[in-house]
Amino acid sequence: MTAGRRKRAKGIVLLAFLLACLPLLSGCWNYKELTDINVVVGVGLDKTEDGKVLLTVQVAEPGSIQSTSGHGSGGEGPTKPVFVVSNEGETIFEAIREMLATVDKKLFFSTAQVLILSERLARESLEESLDFFQRDHEIDYLMNVLVAKDVSPAEILEIESDMDTIPAVYISETVENTSYRGTGKKTMLIDVIKDMDCKGKQPVIGQITKAGENMVRTEGLAVFKNGKLVGWLDPYETRGFQFATNEITNAIVNIPVEEGKMAMEVFRARGEIDVAFEDEEPARLIVRVKLEANVGGHEGKGKLDTPDKLLALEKVLEETIKEEIEKVLKKTQEEYSSDIFGFGMQVHKYHPQYWKKSQDEWDQIFSRLPADIQVDAKIRRTGIIINPVIKEH
Amino acid sequence: MFGRIRNKSKSGRNNSEEIVQTGSYGPIPPSADAVKASLNEIFSNCCDFILREIACGKNGAIRILVAYIDGFVSKNELNQDVVRPILDFLANEESPGGSSIYNRLTDCIVVNNDIHEAADMHQAVDGIISGEAVLFIDGETRALVVGVKAPQGRQVQEPDTETSIRGAREGFVENLLTNTALIRKRIKNPNLKLEMMQLGERTKTSVCICYIKGLANEEIVREVRERLKKIKTDAILDSGIIEQYISDHRLSLFPTVGSSEKCDKLAGKLLEGRVAIFCDGSPHVLTVPYLFVESIQATDDYFDHAFFATFMRLLRVIALTTSTLLPAMYVALVVYHHTVIPFKLLLTLAASQQGIPFSPFVEAMLMIVAFELLREAGVRMPKPIGQALSIVGAIVLGEASVAAGIASNLMVIVVAITAVCSFIVPPLLRASMLLRFVFLIAANFLGILGIAFVAVAVFVHLCKMRSFGVPYMAPFAPLTLNDLKDAFIVVPIWAMITRPKILRQQENVRGAKGSRRQEVNMQQ
């Protein structure tokens, strides 16, 4: 064997040795097995009276949710599908880390479905509290954010839902429903963060209340102004708001008819907002809504068999929706003075010069402006029957 | 088997004086007795060697020796075509003149068509050991080699290793001449060239280079010839040995020489301008150049509707990726990248992991090794037992290991899908098997990042490779747009007008061009 060859062989042996060390030396770079994490499904954020953060987490126990898992080896798994832990801390991060003193495994936040904020926290320091949730890499920006009204986040997270084994999943599914109906709004963390930074639009966050022992209701909105909660919108105000901001996919609007009511199913709606300028000054807030609806139920008298009757109904529907929008616009203008619609963004976009000089007073300007609401409704179909099946006398 | 070869060569070294050196037998002695003595010496201790002496003519004046190996030669043919005519025609012959008898034998006595002359003892011995009968005539220094080989080996049947739904059922057999005839049957053209050579100093295995002149690139043919000539070994027992000697990248996991047992497949490859290498004793015929894309091609693709063929191609690509990457991806996701797993799936995964004493990596290793053991056992075992084994494997691996809490349900599914996928692309079965482990280890230490590292390394390696001068990853790298018609998608056969361009054939257009030109000529 030549010297060069020996050297090469030596090199190979050394390399093999180093490679053999590799598995032993690899520390724990992010290495986490699924059995070593606590799957957080819901987070509640509250503020105590002395200004500390009260963090509540709802953690899922996968073993008791899935009946198919290999239970052959271990004895009884945990029987409850979730457990809820609360902890106080000076800061959120500290509260989370301190929690490890009482729970067995590291908390994994990516799976969190809902973030529930208490009213007190929302009124005092929303922006400050959300900083951690923006900064941490494990947080899913798509999780639902809700503000608990008349109830603490911990109370909500502690409910035992009969509908879904995981209460947090149950909550996020009701949010989907109400936002489909238009009476609620699905506000994801990313939406809130975006609106917080935007001067032309104030954030709104979905509202959650308790509806009985084991149920919640996620209708209505919490209105914010400059990072602080200023008030609430009820479900119908929420719907009016969403007609204007083009976020309705399907809504049932009741309109008065002869001796009763008629339910109209709005299935296509396009909302548009604008600010009309006159002499370089904003003159009017404009809301334009175009929608199409079907007759869903006719609980009154009257035939529907001529176009004229449908045209008349269209007028009524337009009025009804217009009133709904008017009401919410007035409330935000007068009561809250908070531009949750984003009229300011329109000004910023189309009249940047004006925006530049008056953006800081936009709230007052917004509150002063008269509104012009135009609703254009079309009734497309009347279902599979035309006239109500009633004996006419 | 290989132990035996080693022993053989060892004993050969020890008793070199006893081993007769072929090529040094000298001329054929004129005297029949001398020939007899010399043959008996050469074939001493060969009980299958038969040397028969015919004495015919008046008073037995003419002595003819018939030498052959028993079992190689069809005795019926030998008797009818050679011995009987000799006895009949030479019965009244008087002159013992060797030369004239030799000429008469060749011209008008021996019925068999396949006769040629052996000028010296060496050629005569070659004839005997390759299964022909050799006639030595007293007083003549030439011997007559008569091809009366008995048909050997098994019948042509469907190959077990490459089954197809559509297409010929004929597969190659161990006999070289049967194989070449099978190809000749499909390509009836004198331009189908078959160049015979013998390899292996001791085994003298016939090896045949086959190509279509005017189609195949001459340079590749020349290269094949040269590489074959360079093989220095004493035994060629299978084309697999040739494959290892001539392949461009001997240490690579990926094959650069193709092999097939199917006649129609080989005919197709020849018509694309490739070169085939037949090896006597092996039903596997080699084709070069062999490109990566060939491993996802199947003969069925061309006989079926192009849409289905394309779908199958894509499935094969998916299967190849899955069988290589799935366990690694699973482990990477489960131990590093929880954030990308959808929430509900994460719960399922976490639930299935509960109570498992091993890390996902160890679990995956155990299951994959167990599967490979079963697979190998299934290959080696007699077929009836193999079935029992697969039942045991399914029950033990699938059911019991989950029930015992050694493996999670999902891991069993992952390994099962991997196993199924690994059989879909047979040429890359072994490559993907080994790469699976490499990827798995990388995934356990670095997650998706590790998988990406290894994948890049594999792709760099693949793109660097060449098979007989042709880039291995063609038509993808270098991108040959024209050849993409037969890669991930398959265009209908009537639209596949040109042959794979990357092979640089002498004539690129399929059929149409040449035949049309001929028609025009004929009309003129």
**DSSP helix fraction of chain B:** 40-55%
Biggest interface and residues each: A-B, 32 and 30 residues
Radius of gyration of chain A: 28 Å
Question: What is the string of helix and strand elements of chain A?
Answer: HEEHEHEEHEHHHEEEEHEEEHHHHE
Oligomerization category of the chains in this entry: heterodimer
- Average pLDDT of chain B, rounded to a whole number, is 85
Mean pLDDT of chain A: 87
Largest sheet of chain B: 5 strands, antiparallel
Beta-strand residue percentage of chain B: 5-15%
Q: What's the total number of strands of chain B? A: 12
Count of individual helical segments of chain B: 18
Give the overall form of chain B: elongated
Low-confidence stretches of chain B: 1-20, 513-524
Question: What labels would you give this structure?
Answer:
heterodimer, A: 393 residues, alpha/beta, GMP Synthetase, Chain A, domain 3, 2 domains, 10-stranded mixed β-sheet, 4-stranded mixed β-sheet, 12 helices, 14 strands, B: 524 residues, alpha+beta, 3 domains, 5-stranded antiparallel β-sheet, 18 helices, 12% strand
Explain what you see.
The complex is a heterodimer of chains A (393) and B (524). Chain A is α/β, with parallel strands linked by helices and 393 residues long. Chain A has 2 domains: 33-65 and 77-233; 235-393, Nutrient germinant receptor protein C, domain 3 (GMP Synthetase, Chain A, domain 3, 2-Layer Sandwich). Chain A contains 12 helices and 14 strands. Chain A has helices at residues 3-25, 62-65, 92-99, 119-135, 153-157, 167-181, 189-197, 235-244, 307-336, 343-350, 352-358, 362-368, and strands at 37-47, 53-60, 82-89, 106-108, 114-117, 144-148, 204-210, 216-217, 221-225, 228-233, 251-257, 260-278, 281-299, 371-381. In chain A, strand 11 and strand 12 (260-278) form a beta hairpin. In chain A, helix 8 (235-244) packs across helix 9 (307-336), helix 9 (307-336) packs across helix 12 (362-368) and helix 10 (343-350) packs across helix 11 (352-358). The longest helix of chain A has 30 residues, at 307-336. Mean pLDDT of chain A is 87; it is low at 68-76. By secondary structure, chain B is of the alpha+beta class. Chain B has 3 domains: 19-146, no CATH class; 176-290, no CATH class; 305-451, no CATH class. Chain B has 18 helices and 12 strands. Chain B has helices spanning 2-14, 32-42, 75-89, 98-109, 121-129, 176-186, 218-230, 239-246, 263-271, 300-303, 306-335, 343-353, 360-380, 383-403, 409-422, 429-446, 448-464, 512-523; strands at 49-56, 62-69, 115-118, 133-137, 143-146, 192-199, 205-212, 258-260, 275-279, 285-288, 466-467, 470-471. In chain B, a hairpin with a 5-residue loop joins strand 4 and strand 5 (143-146). The longest helix of chain B has 30 residues, at 306-335. Chain B is elongated and about 105 Å long. The model of chain B is unreliable at 1-20 and 513-524 (pLDDT under 50). Chain A binds chain B through residues 22-23, 26, 29-35, 37, 39, 41, 60, 62-63, 65-66, 68-74, 77, 108, 110-111, 113, 138, 140, and chain B through 334-336, 338-339, 343, 346-357, 359-360, 402-405, 408-409, 441, 445-447.
